[in-house]
Specification:
By secondary structure, this protein is an alpha+beta fold. The protein is built from three helices and ten strands. It comes from Flavobacterium panici.
């Protein structure tokens, strides 16, 4: 009787140990959350240098005091055709992602792009593979350069880890355009999503 009771208790203990969930480290938890929202973040804030510069306004001939509207309308028409072509392009959009996540203004943790290598819309590559972005020619729309870059911070979670804030920036290169954002994310029904994007600076 005592032996059977001992075996029964042992089986219960083994069962409870087997059902015990593995604890997830804070680092792994943050990586999981970031991977869940990264593409949504990029889709919300990325800048495409191919679409940034419409043709300049018509010039005025000071002798006749008239604007060259014929030349302007011709350029505008070509611009619209080009924009339609970009919108209908089924190729993946090349985005340069800054190699390291910003943590308290320190870039010390490399961001793993592997989970996104098969994304259908974006082709994510490390920005370090390309020349420094401030030297990019933003009017060059046919090269193999990224259309823009993205940089993200680590996630500042609330106490219960049900929401968090990410600081991100987007640029179209050339040192002439950039934007900063504060992005709020929340866990709703087990899924992480963006709930608010606030622009914090423009250059």
């Amino acid at each position: 009787m005592k032996l059977s009771k001992f075996i029964f208790i042992t089986l219960i203990l083994l069962s409870s140990f087997g059902c015990k969930k593995k604890e997830v480290s804070e680092s792994d938890f943050e990586k999981h959350v970031m991977n869940s929202v990264f593409v949504e973040i990029v889709d919300s804030i990325y800048m495409d240098r191919r679409t940034m510069l419409p043709p300049p306004m018509p010039t005025r001939d000071f002798k006749t005091n008239k604007e060259d509207t014929i030349g302007y309308h011709d350029k505008l028409k070509r611009y619209q055709i080009e924009q339609d072509s970009i919108k209908n392009d089924k190729n993946r959009i090349l985005i340069g992602v800054h190699d390291f996540i910003v943590n308290n203004k320190i870039r010390n943790e490399k961001f793993d792009l592997t989970p996104f290598k098969n994304n259908k819309k974006f082709d994510f590559q490390y920005a370090s593979k390309f020349p420094e972005e401030r030297f990019w020619n933003i009017e060059d729309k046919k090269s193999g350069m990224p259309v823009g870059t993205i940089e993200i911070s680590n996630i500042r979670f609330n106490k219960n880890k049900t929401s968090g804030i990410i600081i991100a920036s987007a640029s179209c290169g050339g040192g002439k355009c950039g934007q900063g954002f504060e992005i709020t994310i929340e866990n709703k029904s087990g899924r992480w999503h963006i709930v608010k994007v606030v622009q914090t600076w423009v250059s």
